[in-house]
């Protein structure tokens, strides 16, 4: 098996604790041979942990000819310019989310990737969450009937005061956490249509100027309404997923799902009545019937659940490896990413206080 030579830009929580950690469990497929970080102690740690070359200036990597993949795990406001630089220099690039702040930047990056003939990928590993994949299977099976609404809640209670709370650095819950639930929401809404968007943002526990509460409704004709919530002020987190359908519903989190449904063939035929409903004794009656409910559930596999983070990472990197080796199409497409960025751009436009352009 060919081992892909990787350079990681940044050795912070993302570059080291996500990508470096994950690739350390996939040594047959990937090897970290270079990192770039401004901090000396991080460069020294990377040299010790990966046995790689470490650079203070990422531009020194431009001269290397042995790099199969560059991972851009720099702070979010550097995703567009630095990814573009590496594409121009002929490197395949995996960029952390969010890819960009504006759709025009996505278009520029797609153009740069097309001109270079190289792969531009975006790290949306939550697409490979076992729970989300199971949720999709249940919906596609049809047992819930027509899906009316899906709620996806990435909530918790936390106060934050790092760079991820600063608008100028593309911080805030929408750009930091939002790409995960919005990516899933658009998979359920359908990537073949542009949703209508309603969004409300607030700042509750943030010490910066970016938002930490986001409520989004995505809707459209003949589509389910998707309710996305990303909150840092939820002391009683609900289920991550909640699905409402015409024949039943589903609820659960990343390790457990349960759903109930009835089958129409097991119900009594009902006809619309305009006359008042009555009990057999002539007293007023309310619509009521006894439905036969079927219950089912899903638990995450023990091996997957022992390190869910690594499970999703491996699934994503397996997909990327296949694309790098065989030039196969990425499962997370740039058109899907553009749709995601378009939704988030609309959210900011509806909330001028948190809009980088200050509309």
Task: Explain the overall architecture.
The protein is an alpha/beta fold and about 350 residues long. It is about 30% helix and about 20% strand. The chain is built from 10 helices and 14 strands. The protein has an 8-stranded mixed beta sheet, with helices on one face. A 6-stranded parallel beta sheet has the order 3-2-1-4-5-6, sandwiched between helices. α3 runs parallel beside α4 and α4 packs antiparallel against α10. The longest helix is centred in the last third of the chain and has 19 residues.
SSE blueprint and pairings:
Blueprint: E1 4-9, H1 15-23, E2 30-36, H2 40-50, E3 53-55, E4 69-72, H3 79-88, E5 93-95, H4 103-116, E6 120-122, H5 130-141, E7 147-155, H6 173-176, H7 179-189, E8 196-202, E9 213-219, E10 225-231, E11 241-245, E12 248-252, E13 256-261, E14 294-299, H8 302-306, H9 308-326, H10 334-349
Parallel strand pairs: 1-2, 1-4, 2-3, 4-5, 5-6, 7-10
Antiparallel strand pairs: 7-11, 8-9, 9-10, 11-12, 12-13, 13-14
Helix pairs in contact: 1-9, 3-4, 4-10, 7-10
